[in-house]
Specification:
The chain has about 325 residues and is of the alpha+beta class. The chain has helices at about 75-85, 85-90, 110-120, 175-190, 225-235, 245-255, 305-325; strands at about 1-5, 15-20, 30-35, 45-50, 95-105, 125-135, 135-145, 145-150, 155-165, 195-200, 205-210, 210-220, 240-245, 265-270, 275-280, 285, 290-300. The protein has a 17-stranded antiparallel β-sheet that branches. The longest helix has 20 residues, at about 175-190.
Length: about 325
């Protein structure tokens, strides 16, 4: 038995038992919840068995802490400097470098309880989900980043990049450039599909969980026959991968010291006439005795490695503030 629980923004929690089925994204069926890894090579969709009132502990599968790679601050800083040192050789303008932060569970932090607290706190801000299966363990997240959402009358997308932990702090040139990479990329990919009535909002500062980001929003019309193609083209965006896109992805897969698994993959609903697909940020793997939080940041040659460590610490607060409140 496997389990799925989710809450889309401003909707009610839904909980199911059933089966996670592995398939390719190209063959994703209509009307299902799905989740992919960073490369989209692994994709699972949920086949509902029955609706239940709460997350049954018997349906949750946990891996051990030994199954994930965790580094301390010194190792992270050394690894990040090595990561940056290769940019010029491989033609990398920007790439995302991530790490795994391990925190121990306590008696009040069961997966079901933490999911409910996340759903309550981020009811209007994020897709909150829990996915569990013996094939991949138990994953949970509260992700604010919409890849594509809407129907044939209007599709919404966003570019979300740049991070600070205080609204008073001014955006740096590095953060503004980081956001512009993403904004230009998203707009180019949308335009390739020939959208109608495309509107691009002015860039604004938004709060997402414990941190603030720069956000540019897009609205447009697009025939549903093109939805899968746009989803494939958009992801991974420079916000979770880098620039140039393919070179950055190859560089990450070669040089990050851990497997991202579902972190920075896709998660959400693909309906026959409706989409609600998110980029899987602010997520964690729930282990037998620990939570493994996946956090990262956009890196350029101008990055300050100590600041990047702090950014990952800040981002982990979205989940930690709920786990231990």
């Amino acid at each position: 038995m496997a389990c799925l629980a989710y809450q889309f923004p401003n909707e009610e929690i839904k909980v199911f038992t059933g089966e996670w089925i592995e398939e390719t994204l190209e063959n994703l069926p209509d009307d299902c919840f799905f989740i992919t890894d960073f490369t989209k090579e692994k994709m699972f969709y949920f086949q509902i068995g029955q609706t239940v009132d709460s997350i049954p502990e018997s349906a949750l599968s946990y891996k051990e802490a030994d199954d994930v790679f965790v580094c301390n601050q010194k190792a992270y800083l050394n690894g990040l400097q090595y990561f940056i040192d290769g940019f010029e050789l491989f033609g990398i303008e920007k790439a995302i470098f991530s790490r795994i932060k391990l925190v121990g569970k306590d008696d009040a932090s069961s997966a079901g309880l933490v999911f409910r607290k996340l759903a309550d706190k981020y009811k209007s801000q994020a897709l909150v989900y829990l996915a569990s299966d013996e094939k991949f363990g138990t994953w949970m997240g509260a992700t604010p980043e919409v890849l594509l959402s809407g129907d044939q009358s209007k599709i919404h997308s966003m570019a979300l990049a740049g991070t600070k932990n205080n609204s008073i702090i001014q955006w740096t040139k590095k953060e503004q450039e980081e956001h512009q990479y993403v904004a230009d990329y998203v707009l180019d990919k949308i335009n390739i599909q020939g959208p109608k009535e495309l509107r691009v909002s002015p860039t604004e500062t938004v709060q997402k969980g414990a941190v603030f980001h720069l956000q540019t929003s897009y609205e447009f019309q697009l025939e549903k026959e093109k939805w899968n193609a746009l989803m494939q083209d958009l992801h991974p965006t420079p916000a979770v991968c880098g620039t140039p896109s393919q070179a950055a992805q190859d560089y990450i897969l070669t040089n990050e010291p851990h497997e991202r698994e579902f972190y920075t993959g896709l998660v959400g609903w693909r309906g026959k006439d409706q989409l609600s697909v998110y980029v899987n940020l602010r997520c964690m793997q729930v282990l037998k005795n620990d939570f493994a939080l996946y956090v990262g940041g956009g890196i350029t040659q101008a990055s300050n490695i100590a600041n990047e460590w702090q950014e990952t610490e800040d981002k982990s607060g979205t989940l930690l503030d709920v786990i231990f409140e």
